[in-house]
């Protein structure tokens, strides 16, 4: 079984690669001597190029699960393998490294640096990854082009519309070419027209081979993904295909999988 070995970069070309294996994940919070069980025995797998919605009422554990998937938090119990690496049980420093390499985050509130322009915001994860500056610049420029913001590179967040800010945040999430793109209510702060633009971008990224998990309260958004995992009181209540045809995937399946597009910057150390 490959799952216990360190992540092999070549694995990504394999259409059967498991991006996520979660086994009986639980997360307890201790609050004033009382234990709040935010997640309780959650198990599922995600394969490469899945597009999944996580839904459920407020307090059901969606963000808690996203934080664990994104290596921002560790489970109290259970096992988590991310892209072939067992991350449950890792130290904070190891988690940070895995997070930087394998995870792209998109938040409801964009979380951009206000004083930095779009280019700098997008470059930042590459700074942490130790990528040389000319290479950083090249990749940030390319990814901003991919989200159609090539003409807004020098703009700071307050000089951009809400939808543009979220696209900068998506570019930042993508610039490391992560195995997994996680978005927690990515359209929650956008009007419906701008939200639609962002959803179309996710659909395009999915068609290009990315693996995407989106937390949403909106049943219409969930219906546009391929699979819906519903949480309630920290457990998976249902985990079903939405019935949305994977048409976009079929038209875009590429032999090399994500990262092989001619316009996509292939990070060093990874087969293009
Ligand atoms: N840091 C924390 N300390 C204590 N309890 C917490 C903490 N974070 C979350 N919880 C509790 O864990 C449960 C799950 O919270 P979580 O934030 O995952 O819910 P959610 O599904 O994301 O809700 P929402 O839709 O409102 O964002 C809730 O009961 C919450 O009160
Ligand atoms: Mg939440």
From TrEMBL:
- Disordered: where is this region? 236-272
Keywords attached to this entry: ATP-binding, Nucleotide-binding, Transport
Q: Does the keyword Transferase apply?
A: no
Chain intervals with Low complexity compositional bias: 241-255
The UniProt entry, under InterPro entries, shows: AAA+_ATPase, ABC_transporter-like_ATP-bd, ABC_transporter-like_CS, ABC_transpr_LolD-like, MacB-like_ATP-bd, P-loop_NTPase
Q: Which SUPFAM superfamilies match?
A: P-loop containing nucleoside triphosphate hydrolases
User: Which positions fall inside the ABC transporter domain?
Assistant: 20-258
A Pfam family assignment: ABC_tran
Q: Name one GO cellular component term.
A: membrane protein complex
The reply on keyword ATP-binding is yes
Q: What protein is this chain from?
A: ABC transporter ATP-binding protein
Question: Taxonomic lineage of this organism?
Answer: Bacteria, Candidatus Eiseniibacteriota
